[in-house]
Amino acid sequence: MGPRYRVYVNRRMGRVLVSGKPEDEALINEGWKVIREEDDWRAAFEFARDYADRHDYILEWYMEEEMEVLKNVLTN
Description:
With about 80 residues, this protein is α+β, with helices and mostly antiparallel strands. Strand 1 (about 5-10) and strand 2 (about 15-20) form a beta hairpin. The protein is globular. A four-stranded mixed sheet has the order 3-1-2-4. It has two helices and four strands; from the N terminus they run E-E-E-H-E-H.
């Protein structure tokens, strides 16, 4: 089983983050809230993108996670 991707939001800062990194759970103590969890990075990203667009928030993600997903798509 692969990583679980979470969509975090910080409404005060107007930011949305897609992350599969366990260490980002610490963001909850800094005012972030998990609003979605997915097994699929693309599903998490698309949800986060739509949410950020709807609220005019900044969308953030880790390029290395995206690259890993793209690499898996291209090799399978």
